[in-house]
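## retry 2 of 3
previous attempt timed out at serialization; input unchanged, resubmitting
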Amino acid sequence: MTDTPFDRRMLEALICPVSQGPLTYDAERGELVSKAAKLAFPIRDGIPIMLFSEARQIG
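## retry succeeded, writing output
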């Protein structure tokens, strides 16, 4: 198990603000990923930034 910059239990409570679907954690990039919305939300200082304007478009 690798260390994550945030509490992994938080992931269970968070949903994508766009699709209302589940998120997965991308440890390599330090992002929360919504496959349904094709967005990746950054995590800064251990805090997920769940704003559409801060999200990165993914494939």
